[in-house]
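Question (not urgent): is this output format expected?
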Amino acid sequence: MPNDKKSDARIYQLKVSLQGARPPIWRRFQTWGNITLHDLHLMIQAVMGWWNYHLYAFRIDARSYEAPSDDFESLFPNAPQDAGKTLLKDVVQEEGRKFTYTYDFGDNWVHTVVVEKITQAEDGVEYPICLAGRRACPPEDFGGLWAYQAIIDQWAREGELDSDTLAWLEDRFEEAFDPVKFDLRAARRRLSNLRQMELD
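Got this back:
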């Protein structure tokens, strides 16, 4: 559990932005530095609003870190590394560092992750915690950024969507579709749920 990992008191403040989204879609959150990259994947899923249906990969210093699997082959130097056995603090150690996180290799949602600062934990704060964000996350299995962007552009241009598209979106979101909306309380609730279970 992240809050049990106080032997390493460093806290990473991260900003995750969906590449190519116009207007920008991003989240800012803080977490312990000694979580695994698989933990980080689950946290990004929570703050962005993804549903963890698909595979993922982090790309850091020309090396790929992917979902834990029995298929990793360590004999090859460029083979993907196990994200479940790699700590964030071991591969990213400086403020200002950037790396990528790709979710769903079909739709290919690529995110830029920036380490905005590395600091000490604050008393009374439950980590991980989402601090801010902008705009709704695209729904799962939408067809990728180009398809979502076309919908957003139509929305901005015409102020409405055709009834079939709107019904599909509202079914996926389980509420009225609003591409502008970011629900901070919901993001924090999803992170709180992660604190209640084993992440590793």
